[in-house]
Automatic annotation (TrEMBL):
GO BP field: microtubule nucleation; nuclear chromosome segregation; nuclear division
Entry-linked PROSITE patterns: TUBULIN
SUPFAM superfamilies: Tubulin C-terminal domain-like, Tubulin nucleotide-binding domain-like
Any one cellular-component term (Gene Ontology): microtubule
Compartments it resides in: Cytoplasm, Cytoskeleton, Microtubule organizing center
Family as reported in the entry's similarity comment: Belongs to the tubulin family.
Keywords: Cytoplasm, Cytoskeleton, GTP-binding, Microtubule, Nucleotide-binding
Organism: Exocentrus adspersus
Lineage: Eukaryota, Metazoa, Ecdysozoa, Arthropoda, Hexapoda
Residue intervals of the Tubulin/FtsZ GTPase domain: 3-160
Molecular function terms from GO: GTP binding
Entry protein name: Tubulin/FtsZ GTPase domain-containing protein
InterPro entries xrefs: Tub_FtsZ_C (IPR008280), Tubulin (IPR000217), Tubulin/FtsZ-like_C (IPR037103), Tubulin/FtsZ_GTPase_sf (IPR036525), Tubulin_C (IPR023123), Tubulin_CS (IPR017975), Tubulin_FtsZ_GTPase (IPR003008)
Amino acid sequence: MPCEMITLQLGQCGNQKNVFLSKNGGGAGNNWASGFSQGEKLNEEIFDIIDREAEGSDSLEGFVLCHSIAGGTGSGMGSNILEKLSDRFPKKLVQTYSVFPNLDEISDVVGEVDPTQVHKSLQRIRERKLAQFIPWGPASIQVALSRKSPYIQTAHRVSGLMLANHTNISSLFDRALNQYDKLRKREAFLDQFRKEDMFKENLDELDSSREVVQDLVDEYIAATQENYCTWEQA
């Protein structure tokens, strides 16, 4: 679902009638606000396609969204579509595969605006409860790291490894927060956001997004503590 023609080679990709291409072109300019605004304007066209696909299925169970959260279309329009899917199909599953940018080697095209797009996308996914993880305790990791018995199968070791990987992702969010704070202090790239109606009066939503990501980091850190089961965000 690109906003510009040059980003997609269709080939034999499913039903061509149900592939959306923006008539205006130009893309979202790596701007979350622009992508989200275009999602509002193109909402009817996009969901006509989604509704056709849903009606054509034998037994609709849910939706899978693959998107990048570094640019404008994947982060902004992707966030908009996630919200609308949750509203229109409240009883269906929504699985997202969100591609994060490499914050250590930011591309020349996207530029240092990346952390802002990440914050906005994460805020939408988290606030709409579009992703849920089963509660767990640090004891699971301790069990996975315990001595192996030659008489018992230890399938739980895979689960312990996955739990460790989930909590370690907080370092990625930390790097995004640090970069965002530097850019916000210098007010870098904000002129591109002020062009959109939702940011003309103030930039409060950007600051709110930062708080959401910080809460996410705090929860991941808390998940490594013994008292996580009774932990609550302030």
